[in-house]
Amino acid sequence: MTEAQQPQLSPDLVRIMERRLSAIEHRSTCLQNLINQPEASPAEYARANKELRKLSGCMDLIAHLRTKQKEIDGLKSLMAECPEDKDMLDMATEELSKAIEEEKRLQSLLLKSLLPKDEADERDSILEVRAGTGGEEASLFAMDVFKMYERYSQKKGWKFEVVDIAESDLRGYKEASAAISGAGVYGKLKFESGVHRVQRVPVTEKSGRVHTSAVSVAILPQADEVDVQLRNEDLRIDTYRSGGSGGQHANTTNSAVRIIHIPTGMTVAIQDERSQHMNKAKALKVLCAKLYEIERSRIQISRSKLRSEQIGSGDRSERIRTYNFPQGRVTDHRVGITHHAIDDVTQGGNLDVFIDALLLQQEMDAIASFSSSSKY
């Protein structure tokens, strides 16, 4: 997040944060005392050490903040003691201005460290795009959206690996999925989940009438074996001949793979690769991500039955964005932002206009929640 996007810290918010910081300092002192006590049991020592390690990053920032606050107090005292010394006053005023800016920067960093974090933000992602209402035109737009994320990923230096594509008659995408790998992929893309609506004249339209179609996008954090325990007895794995546009490799071997997770009934089918082994590996990767997302949703709901995120639920049924080609604009309905260079967005260039606004909104919502939960 750039300096211009840093949220302003109100005096009330600073006071609330100071109470939290004092509590952290007190807790750190108690833990230090505990591990220095000879009578502490090995279990108590281990627990205290683990908690101290968790607090260490925050404590380093607090130490820097306290040093800077002492410097500010010292400069203010100096200015009060030497009101007639213009050179001294000018120098102290300049130093004070720099010190206050640094204090604000440290306070912003500390506030971010205190806000709740989604541990999945640093993970890789599975992207799924499905054509919705609108027939062939929806399939063609699904292809455009899928390629938009591919280009965006390339610009970010991420790895974009096609998992599976099911083509329509006009070579659009009825369904398409990809694995996206890189630093902080899920945290950047997670608010792209939902219904993307397009308004344009389809290639199949002879009279020039504008049609409205829709595709659904799902962004899932990739899971690993530690997150999801897949037991062989819970899986039914079928192989079959892949369909396609023909050619020497089509329909000659049982390379396509369908995996059914028996406890949930969830099905994943992949026929993108010519190798059955590779299709199975891809299908397991997608299945793990889907099961991990179910568990994440269950935990989030159980933590707060009244949870309602102002920027949108990430629900695939929620209409989040409209791409209006005749007017050359893209509008995100959650943050109310319209961008008037539609080609830049669909080429993956200006997608950050929306993504950065959504991430900033998430941070502001978290700050508001932090304030309201810390009043009592």
Q: How would you describe the overall organization of this protein?
A:
- The chain is of the alpha+beta class.
- The protein starts with 10 loop residues before the first helix and ends with a helix.
- α1 packs across α2 and α2 (42-81) runs antiparallel to α3 (86-114).
- The protein has eight helices and eleven strands.
- A hairpin with a 4-residue loop joins β7 (256-261) and β8 (266-270).
- The protein has helices at 11-35, 42-81, 86-114, 135-156, 185-189, 276-303, 342-346, 352-373, and strands at 125-131, 159-167, 173-181, 194-200, 211-221, 235-240, 256-261, 266-270, 319-324, 329-332, 337-339.
Question: What's this entry about, in short?
Answer:
The chain is an alpha+beta fold and 376 residues long. The chain has eight helices and eleven strands.
Strand content: 15-25%
Count the strands? 11
Ends: how far apart? 30 Å
Structural class: alpha+beta
Which radius of gyration do the C-alpha atoms yield?
27 Å
State the helicity in percent bands: 40-55%
What general form does the structure show? Answer: flat
Q: Biggest sheet, in brief?
A: 8 strands, mixed
Spans where pLDDT lies below 50 across 5 or more residues: 1-5, 245-251, 303-316
- Mean pLDDT equals 83
N-to-C SSE string, H for helix and E for strand: HHHEHEEHEEEEEHEEEHH
Quaternary: single chain
Our count of helices gives 8
